[in-house]
Amino acid sequence: MHFAMPPRKTSHPPPYAARNQSSLPIPPALKNLFRGGKLRTLALGILGFLTLVWLLRGSGGRDTGVNIPQIPIGSGPPVVIVTTLDPKADATWAGKIKKNREDYAKKHGYLTFFPPNDQYPIGSSPKTWSKVPAVRHAMTLYPGSTFFWYLDSAALIMNPSIDLQSHILKASRLEEIMITNEPVVPPDSVIKTFGNLKGDRIDFVVTQDKEGLVPTSMIIRNGEWAKYFLDAWFDPIYRSYNFQKAESHALEHIVQWHGTMLAKLALVPQNLLNSYATGPANPKFGKYKEGDLVANFPSCARDKADCANEHQAFFDILERKDE
Amino acid sequence: MSRSPSPRPGGWSSPGLNTPYDSGGRSSPFANGSSNNVTWASAQARSANVKGYTAFTPRNQGFFGKHFRRLSTSLPFSYGDKEKLGRGRGYQGNSRIMQMLNRIGWNLWRLRKPLGTILAILLVYILFYVTPLHRMYRRSSWFGGGSKFVVILAANQGGGVMEWKGPREWAIERDSVKNKKKYTQKWGYDLEIVDMSTKKRYAHEWRESWEKVDTIRNAMRKYPRAEWFWWLDTNTFIMEPTYSLQNHIFKQLKDITYRDINVYNPLNISHPLTDEYLDPETRSPIGDGKVDSINMIVPQDCGGFNLGSFLVRRSVWTDRLFDIWWDPVGYEQKHMEWEHKEQDALEYMYKNQPWIRPHVAFIHQRKINAFPPGACGEKGNDPHIHYHENERDFLVNMAGCEWGRDCWGEMYKYRQLSNRLNRNPWEKVKDWISDSVKARRDAKKKKEEEQKKTN
């Protein structure tokens, strides 16, 4: 096809188009730099590399430190049950207590640890202090486990079918059951448990009876916080202070005075972890009922000869269940 | 160059006639031989004088006029090509200086590119240090990293309700603050000056000057991006402001600190812990041995820990330490015994709470906390403790100078010494001249006195 005349040029010239259509806006001066020969690109490449090295210089050079075996928390059995036993106590009773824990642990894949209560450097302080280094000791022995449940020798596990994790320790469950804004020392302590704590940030689960916090049944999560908490609690300054109730008053003290401890504490209803068969139970939900996880006899712990007798009826119930 | 339009009373010279070297100049339009006539040119020149500028420039007058062409051909501002230069060279200069200048000029022109680059670099370098640019560079977290450090300076220690400060105390404080301000500004750190006067801060107790902890915590809140906090007492003086914390301490942290207290153990703390119930890291003499796990750096003097100058890092561990440091039960039982308050409490905790040990590193005292003579020994010759001028120690802490020593005197002495040690070369030359003059004068005086005596 042809025309006699070439087509007229349009009288509306297109606006100047951008020279480069690349998405990266490189200034022309820089582009000229790149346009040179091979040597120039090489030099630029080296310069760029050196800049990169210089920028990353700080992050390089890992030091390995000393060789301490690192076992990640969570790689072992989830829960370790710790009970300190008096080596002078009646052997058959001690055996029964051990069996009580071992049966429960076997059922859920947990571990048990029964250190004698005189093997730790407590000095002249009451023997009940031994629970603190005992938990630390268990953490040393089973560094892969996540939770350490200290259960006093005066307490019995009455409902072995309850799994500790779904019963208490799961983050969502913990958030559900923890008691917030509750005076740490009953009736009217100024310091109250924190609200809006996240379940997975809780490192310490404990209960409260009528008189205050009771460390006879408590769960501590393994980790750096646990070391801090246990070591601070075990400080000789508290052991020598003659707190009326030894370590439980020391616990109440440190928890009330130190925010980094209270922020990790979850107070749960007493019957979930530490129901009292005898003694000053929490008036709301402290008394032992059929089906509770634990039955505790705090009074027998003080004059230990009685424990075997008081436990007898409950051992019978457990045996009947097994059959 | 001001040129008189009429250089001689005799009138105008003819440039074309008396300048044999002017080869290429245009012929003068007003070259007339007669000297006394008022010519058109001289009239114009005079009127130009009235106007303030000359309408034309008589060429080739005097030295510059005569040589300008040849100079200019060899100078960079002439766009002369090589041919012209060749011609310029062909002439035999009438002086050797000219030849030399010529050669220098030519060489400069030939080397204009590298020289220009060097000059540009020099200019950039000077501009970098003259403007606040270098401070921004040192402060930025990408390059210098200065914003990661905060210096906390305790001011007004023991002041407030307990005692009034005299002019000397004010002078000490002013010097100390000025010293740290200069230092932090130089390296792009933050400086937090805190008032440590004794106050009744808590309604239920008298917590005498245990505020170190609260103060550092406040600073941590105030500078949320900073990582390391350096606590300094009032009676300290940074002797070497040219040392940055990064170069002096943190780049070689592993080499200049020791985790195992047995290296220097004035308190005889048994270390490492051996209790079986503790985990291997806590029982290890040096924690996990990694630099990353150091959260606190403390110097030790002859009597144990010294918190006159120490460093803490923002970390969860530090939060816990600061939380447990002050405890009412400890305070109640020990506050009479713990004369040095936080310092004693920290020593106590280090001994009795195993979780602390793996994260504390000790630093050789003279690195951040050298003592003057009088503290820890009268002579001041302990190589681990006392300040050494020749080794240019970083900081002097006039610890305990308020107990029977002269704080102001010491502060003054060390300030002068620091200034003298850090003179720039020009100041050194000046001082050398004045010193030698003084020495000569003194010698003279002595001689005269001796003569007088002999007479």
UniProtKB/TrEMBL annotation, chain A:
> What GO molecular function annotations does the UniProt record carry, in alphabetical order?
alpha-1,6-mannosyltransferase activity
Recorded hits in InterPro entries, A to Z, give:
Glyco_trans_34, Nucleotide-diphossugar_trans
Q: Give the UniProt entry's GO cellular component terms.
A: mannan polymerase complex
Please list where the region (Disordered) is annotated.
Answer: 1-23
Domain of life assignment: Eukaryota
Pfam family of the protein (one): Glyco_transf_34
Keyword list (alphabetical) reads:
Glycosyltransferase, Transferase
What biological-process GO terms show up in the record?
A: protein N-linked glycosylation
Family, according to the entry, reads as follows: Belongs to the glycosyltransferase 34 family.
Q: Can you say what this protein is called? A: Alpha-1,6-mannosyltransferas-like protein subunit
- The source organism is Bimuria novae-zelandiae CBS 107.79
From TrEMBL, chain B:
Region listing for Disordered, in residue ranges: 1-28
List, alphabetically, the Pfam families matched.
Glyco_transf_34 (PF05637)
| MF GO annotations | glycosyltransferase activity
Q: Which parts of the chain span the membrane according to its record?
A: 115-133
Keywords attached to this entry: Glycosyltransferase, Membrane, Transferase, Transmembrane, Transmembrane helix
Q: Name one GO cellular component term.
A: Golgi membrane
Where is this chain compositionally biased, Low complexity type?
A: 1-16
GO terms, biological process: protein N-linked glycosylation
State the family named in the UniProt similarity comment for this chain: Belongs to the glycosyltransferase 34 family.
| Name recorded for this polypeptide | Glycosyltransferase family 34 protein
Q: Which organism is it from?
A: Bimuria novae-zelandiae CBS 107.79
Q: What is the lineage of its organism?
A: Eukaryota, Fungi, Dikarya, Ascomycota, Pezizomycotina
